[in-house]
Structures are given as C-alpha cells and as structure tokens.
Design brief:
Blueprint lengths: L1 H14 L9 H11 L18 H31 L5 H34 L7 H10 L7 H15 L13 H12 L1 H4 L8 E2 L2 E4 L12 H6 L8 H6 L11 H13 L5 H21 L3 H4 L4 H4 L3 H8 L10 H21 L7 H32 L1
Antiparallel strand pairs: 1-2
Amino acid sequence: MKFLRDAFDKARPNFSEGGKFAFLHSVFDGFETFMFVPGHATHSKVHVRDGIDMKRTMITVVVAMLPVLLFGIWNVGYQHFLATGEGESMMEQVITGLIQVLPIIVVSYGVGLGIEFYFAQRRGHPINEGFLVSGLLIPLILPPTIPLWMVALGTAFAVIIGKEVFGGSGMNLLNPALTARVFLFFAYPAYMSGEFLSNGDAVWFLGNREALVDGFTGATSLSQIAAGVDIQYSVWDMFMGFEKGSIGETSVLATLIGAFILIISGIGSWKIMSSVFVGGFLMGTVFNMIGGTPFLEMPAYYHLLIGGFAFGAVYMATDPVSAAQTETGKIIYGLLIGVMTVLIRVANPAYPEGMMMAILLMNVFAPTIDYFVVESNKKRRLKRATV
C-alpha cells in the first residue's frame, strides 16, 4: 500500500489551501481517510478514543450487511424464476438478481454521496462517514423492481431532510434509511406494498402479469395475513428467507449472521437486538390470548420471522445515533420497538409492516427515555448518599 500512500501525499498540496484544487479539499480528505486511518486526533469537545476511526466502524457494519445482501441478490432471481416456472440454475438466479439489484445500489450511493460531498464542500467540513452504511441500507429495504428515479428521490430526501437539516452525520434525529423508506411508502404506496400496478407489473416480480405461472401470488406473508389468507410459506421458508419481500429483509438466518458480526465487533448493541425480539414476542403472546382475527391468533413467534422484523431489530434499531444511549434505556427502547411493531401490524391492517414505523417513532422518544433513566439514576444515588 506504500505506492498508494505516496500518491495521496504527492497529491495533497493540490487540494490544500492555496492549491489549484483547494475547493475540493473535503472530497480529497474523504477519499484519503477512507483508505487510511487519519493521523490526527479528534477536535470536538466531547469524543471517545478508540482503536479504530468512524470509517472503519462503518465498514464493519457494511461487512455485517453482506450476508443479507448476497442472499437478497439470489432471492430476487429465485423468486423471478419461481414465478415464471423456469428451472434455472443458481448461477443464473444470482446473475438475474445482481442485474436487478446492482443499479439500485449504484444510484443510492451515487446520489447520496453526491449530496454529502456538496454539503461538505459548502460548509468546509470533512465528508461524513455515515452514508457508507445508509447507502446500502436504503436499497436493502426497497422492493427489487422499484424504479431507479424513486431510489434517487428517496435517497435525496433521506440525506437532505433526514440528515443535513440536522447538521449531518451524528446529529440526525431519525434513521436516514428509514426516512427514505417511509417517504417512498406514503408517496408511492403501490410501488412499495407488493400490489400489481396498472401496467401489470408486480413489485416482487421482474416482469408482467402475463408471464406468471398459474396460481402465483405477488403477496408477501404479511399481506396475506392482513387479508385473512393462510400463509403459503412454512416456518422454515420464513426463517431462511425463501419468500417475496424487500431485497434484504426476507432472511432471518442471514440477518442473524450479521447480528453476530456486529455483536462480536462491539458495534451493535445486543441489548437492543434481544429486547426488540422479546418485546415483539410478548406483545404477540398477549394478542394470542385475545384472539378473534388472523393477526391476533397467529403464533407470536411468527411476528419475529415475517416482514422486516429481524432486519429492523439488527440493522435499524441499533443505529448508534438515533437509538437510546444509556444501558437501561437501550432495553426499554428495544422492548417498546418490539411491542409497537406488533401493535401496528395488528391494529392497522393497512400498514402490516410495522417495524419501520415503530423504529422511527422510538427514534423520537429515545432522548426522553435516556433522560428519565439518567434522572432515575441521580435520584437513586442521592437517596443512598443521604442515608
């Protein structure tokens, strides 16, 4: 890597103050610190010293998302050939999925990083590292057949409204990727819900209605339950991810592999992840006791397997910026996300995927949760001190 280090050192004067490309200093700094750990200390008043910098942390999260990305690429191709009745090989399924998914990722990173670079240059700030993760999260929570212009629009909305208006990475109140998802869901519900569109195209299928085999349904397991239809997938299918859905959300197994990477690296909070699952299961159990509708009577553990529950618990709820920060607060925060997810699914059949909405709601209340946890700790310690 010495030749690369020498190349950056040789080019730096051109991008420093007085150089002919000084106006691109933030862009140069962003690429240099992506390749090499910065040689300078943090300048902000409040910071935590660690052995790795923020870019290396973000890259670890990206690595943790590779299992769901790779499975999602294959599953997109698999679902396409399953719908058409064609018996293609695994390699052909992967290639078909890659052709569909790769442009979505390219557009997400291209638009998002372009906006990040623009704001960094205007403000004279370093390039924010957060979009390394958000740029991949956004495609993973979108349908595989979403138009690329919608990807660009949703990404721009997430970066500008979800991050930059708050001051950039580390200052955002809401999870940027979820901000994009919710914006697109309410702006273009037909493209995000799995329904057939007026032109015959289906959100979860790479083709049109005429190419489908008899008996094929474009409904996901969540939409089937909301419609009062028996789920066509087995528990094994739902756990492995052999069903229709957003690109990266279907496989619980792949998500758990990512969770393992995040936990052993110390980046993801196991308290948040586990408490989300516990909260969802407990709320599902309560509804089982009530009964009366398919959603109420569905086994509680089904909620943990279908939709984006596992994906949201591992990759979204654990966002270190928008999640609760205190240790007790993380448990409360996670429990409430799990409870709210199942509550939204059951109480609002028009929006059966409640995970994303529940996380955004708890993002807003995370500071309040931390506040009351800290106040409780203060009162308890003061009480001990006066005894």
